[in-house]
Give the backbone structure.
Amino acid sequence: MAKIEKMRQLGMERTKVHDPADASYTLFRAEDGELILQIDTYGSGSRGQPGKKSQTIQFGHDGLEQLKGILKNIREE
């Protein structure tokens, strides 16, 4: 699990589109009242245990603000 506070952009030498996988999201408030977006991903059909939760990522206030800015500035090339 990871709570994202800050992201930075990196270039990649090689890119590959991954196999599709299911995901779910939950919005909740932490004990201090901070709104948290949690995204869970589940193993794809090609994994050893398809459907098993494989990753959990949480975004707090700062991470959400940065993510919103990134999404707002995306331009199709």
Summary: The chain has one helix and four strands. The CA atoms of residues 33 and 74 lie 30 Å apart.
